[in-house]
Amino acid sequence: MIESLDPGTLYPFGGAALFALGLHGLIRRRHLILRILAVNIMGSGVFMVFLGIAARGNAPPDPVAQALTLTGIVVAVSATAFALALTVHLARLTGYAVLLPGPLQTHRDSHPDDR
Amino acid sequence: MNAALLTFDFVLLAGLLGVAWRCLASTDLFRAVVLFITFGLLLAIAWVRLEAPDIALAEAAIGAGITGALLLVTLERLKHIMNRPRTDTDHDPAPPPDPVASDADAPGAAPTGDAASRAADAGNAALSCAPAPARGRWITLVVTVGLAGLLMATLATQEHDPGLQPTVAEHMDVSGVDHGITAVLLNFRSWDTLLELAMVLLAGLGAWSLGRHDALPARPTPGPVLPGAVRLLLPVAIVTGVYLLWAGSHAPGGAFQAGAVLGAAGILVSLARPHELPDPDPRLLRIGVTAGALLFLAIGLWGLFAGPALLTWPSELAYPLILIIETGATLSIALTLVALFIGGRSPREDT
Amino acid sequence: MSTASPDTLIFATGALAAVSLGLPLLASAWPWQARRIGLLGLPLAILGLLAAVGLFLDAAPGMDAPAVRVGLGGWEAPLGVTLHLDGLALAMLLLNALVALAGSLYARGYIHTAAGERQFWPLWLWLWGGLNLLVLSGDAFNLFITLEIASLSAVALVALTGDTDAVTGAMRYLLINLLGSLSFLLGAALLYGEFGVLDLQLLGELADDGPTVRMAAALMLGGLLMKAAVFPLHVWLATAHASAPAPVSGMLSGMVVAAMFYLILRLWLLIFAPLGTPALAVLLGLLGSAALVWGSLQALRAPRLKIVAAYSTVAQMGYITLAFPILILHPAAWPVVVFFAFAHGLAKAAVLMAAGTVQKAAGHDRMNALGPVLRARGRTVFALGLGGISLMGLPLTGGFLAKYLLLEAGLLAAADTTTIMQVWTALWVVMVALGSLLATAYILRMVAPAFAAGERNPGGHVSAGMEWMPLALAVGAAAMGLAGASLTGLLEHTTVAA
To answer: Model pTM?
Structure first.
């Protein structure tokens, strides 16, 4: 039993759990910073699946899966950086860093252009 | 597999899940960010455990370090925005009107009615947020737990597949480097890496398109500690960055880790002098952030014309070319990361 | 009778990828000339693309595989990343080129401040280039990066207007895109764990209908459906598409959504086709019908012109979703999806850009106050109407051909299946007809004020490009009905898993 629980088996499970946990946070929380953190945690879950797969078995770890993860981390940090900039921009405009549900200005009949 | 290591794995995974949960359940944003940085450092340990020291380095430098710095400066900015009474313009002028947005609504169209009341409960109130509503709690829980279960069940059915490790090992001698990951990143799958550089650049372009940068959130006159620390750390960071760049060909390291370390050094410098941000010629800056990808593509064009395909280089020239590409990439990444930390584009770009 | 050598096609494929990356890079490095780089570079790139289509059609009958596959860096799959150019990819590259070219000429007059141009053009070229690279890519992980490049540039372009709605829409769009991309990536990770390769064609040769492939299909296709705004994952679309600058709206509704469907189709044809079951067909049919009805009803009551057009995209995406159950039952019907995406892409880009022209001229786009401007701007109304007619699917237009093919495939699918599936198929055929009726209603709602008596007032000045480009796109969409045969000829040479 213990034999079968090598890191290559165990960590992908952990990655799956992190992905689901991040998704939970993304759905449940409204503040944009928390949503961005949630997306990052989901991403870390995917990377854990990749690296776990790379470490399966007794052979040396798979460099391709590791390289993909490295690329993924850089892509994730780029997307995060832009998302944070957009959050600040939204907060400057509205005073909030929260995506409120409900109709936007565009969906109402009156529009600032009326003035 | 010995029991001590297995216990370690379980404790580490439980810790990661626990920290992630606390982070996402937090009602205090500062706390959430600190927990997230902790999460990143724990991840780095997990990556070491999974025999991926390169990724551990990258996670610590990029995932925890750079992302952490970006998150913290964003919190400072949010605090600054929300604590600022919108009518009070003399001590902290709003950023000048943005010509890009000129034919649309002016930023002034934003709701300002409750500005005064917001300013009243200033302080840390800006960095707290409402807990998740009770409505929909169970359905989300069922859906996400179900998803996790399905994913684990799927993973449990997978046989061990060696992946591409044997194929990579077979081709290492013509890759020009001795380190598997670098061979994959800069030779076998160099197209991915080129597009990844484009992605970093695009994040910078996107942030610049949103507006001009203003001063970093004001803080009290910096004391002697930060400039002193910068004087000490800057040379160390540069040496580390150059070492990581050079080491990438045969040991853990490479352009992205090196870029992150140099970028962190740049961030420290800009933090030490928040009032006199470096404002280089925007033309130089633009060329600097694109140079890495442009150089990469230009070298790759050789293969397009000489054959067999784009991004091919002769194996005897592979090592020097990879080193040139990595150097360009490191500088562009470092520059873009600092630019992302500072925020918007240079005001001089619009003139 | 000259046959292009394979080397020429390999060069052409590599050159297409290099130009798709090089133009945006140059524009980013030197934004002061970005407009010129775009307006000179794009037409040249499109000429190159047309040459590649000619070469491909010339060489394709003699090739032993329907696709040109280029191992980048000289490394063949599974070690390297492969570019995959076949008829399907060329069709999507053409659509991207047409919409981007029209959008560029439109944007010349629409974005008029020098500072605005410096921000707009590099991002605009990134969107075009990113979509090209997405269409060319034949590797699951590489697709993830191209998806991210395309979505990040699209989000930045939406936010460029700078008003609250646009930035809110951009934020929603970004979050949904990140979620969709990560879902796609996790699916790719599962496939890699099971089969040890990332190349789509190799995956297609190895794939079975085991649990990994099922889960990966759910994650990857689910992520893409989210990005394609298929009901019930459509909430973000209307705000993002309606509040973006007009050329961007045209590109988003015309090409970006179509690119997501392209990718769904590609994955389906290469890897996931064995998973098609009647139950899945019923589920997709229901989703498509719901999108069709819901989107149309929203379009009928939306207060602003661009929102009407944006909701109509939700409805039309329902149509494409309806095509999938039909192709589960009748696999040979897949070109219908491309026809539909093509006809819709051109027509919807025309409608959204025309709406942008009206908005610019009138200073607003509130439905109840557009009469005077519509009455005075015949060309723009004509573009709205002609694009709309193609969306409704009147005879001789591209939309008609697409719907006709959809109905035909549906009836063919119904012929060789069980009774219960015949009932479902009949239901979808009815939905296609109902959707056309609803489309007629909201298109009439857009153009009707132009024909009522009343005051005429052309409003503010708009550039020639803003007047003529929507019209050109609408004529293109209509002409699709006549030029459909050449698209079929191209699509014949497409890699489909055995």
So the answer is: 0.93
